[in-house]
Amino acid sequence: MPTFLFDSVVFGPIKSRRLGDSLGLNLLSTTAKICNLDCIYCECGWSNNHADKDKFVNQKTLKIVLEKILTRLVKCGRTLDYITFAGNGEPTLHPHFEEIVDDVVALRDEWVPKAKIAVLSNATTLKKASVMRGLKKVDSRILKLDVGSDEYFQLINKPIGEISLDELCHDLQEAFNGDFCIQSMFIKGEINGRLVDNTTPEEVRQWIEKLAVIKPKEVMLYSIDRDTALSSLTKVSEEELLAIADKVRTLGLATSVTG
User: Fold this and answer.
1) CA dist 115 to 158, 200, 247, Å?
2) Which residues, in sequence order, are CB contacts of 100 under 8 Å at separation 6+?
3) Would you tell me how many other CB atoms lie within 10 Å of the CB of residue 74?
4) Is residue 195, in this structure, part of any structural domain at all?
5) At a CB cut-off of 8 Å and minimum separation 6, what does 193 contact?
6) Helix (H) or strand (E) holding 196
7) Could you list the pLDDT tens digit for every one of the 259 residues in the chain?
8) Is the residue at 188 inside a domain?
9) Residue 220: phi, psi to the nearest 5?
10) d(CA 130, CA 134)
């Protein structure tokens, strides 16, 4: 099967491997991926640098659609564990991210007050004050850190523009007093004839060094579960993920593995 794009602004509820029953929010285009990273493992395929940024979801439209869906779910007796900002790329790139968070929090409080709100983000926009304000208003910030070296950051995450791993880690260290989760994807494969494997002892060592400085409240380890932008990638076994998780736990950090 090919990679895919979410074709609606609100999708689900779906059974998330990490968040349970989750209603997804796509703030981005429904016809193209919009992201400032071009991760080789992304289930949405390659980033479209030429995507029309005017196709970001309209704030009012999202609010109307979300309220209709929440109303229907409540009438059906359906419960939610999470409302999750995810979608076709990086949600915090939306120019009205903070205002949309405010809308979602208000609708959650009105219709499904027991549900939590999560944002899945690549953590590259933490320097933007409005993004930080928005992220502080949600219950769960799940931020990416897949690698320990800038070499692998460029190889696996493929930043678009001037984004370095050291800069990203510095921003994570300064953000939220550690009140966030790190989500880390582990993969193996080949790109342009070069082997790619961020489970090697050296790469894991450098990654753990970054975690020791960042000090998140939790680290989530997982591997690919769907088709990826680069088709030559393979899944890392649960046994290998558990072995890496044991090393993370030596830092005193809560750790979970999704096989």
Assistant:
1) 34, 38, 32
2) 27, 59, 62, 63, 94, 134
3) 14
4) yes
5) none
6) strand 194-197
7) 345 777 789 998 888 777 889 999 999 987 788 899 999 998 887 876 555 555 789 999 999 999 999 999 999 998 899 999 998 899 999 999 999 999 999 999 999 999 999 999 999 999 999 999 999 999 999 999 999 999 999 999 999 988 899 999 999 999 898 999 999 999 999 988 888 999 999 999 999 999 999 999 999 999 988 888 888 899 999 999 999 999 999 999 999 998 6
8) yes
9) -110, 120
10) 6
Q: What is the dihedral of CA 207, 230, 122, 216, to 10 degrees?
A: -30
Angle between helices 201-214 and 238-249 (to 10 degrees): 40
135-158: b or e for each residue (b if 16 or more CB lie within 10 Å)?
beebebbbbbbbbbbbebbebbbb
Query: How many domains are there within the chain?
Result: 1
Question: Would you state the pLDDT for residue 3?
Answer: 59
CATH code for position 50: 3.20.20.70
- The C-alpha R_g of the chain, in whole angstroms, comes to 18
Can you tell me whether residue 141 is helix, strand or coil? strand
- Structural domain of 155: 10-258
**What distance in Å separates the CA atoms of residue 164 and residue 171, rounded to the nearest whole number?**
11
CA 222 – CA 257 distance, rounded (Å): 6
The verdict on residue 65 lying in a domain is yes
Cα gap 259→245, rounded to integer Å: 12
CB neighbour list of residue 170: distance below 8 Å, 6 or more residues apart: none
* Structural tokens at position 23: 């209603």
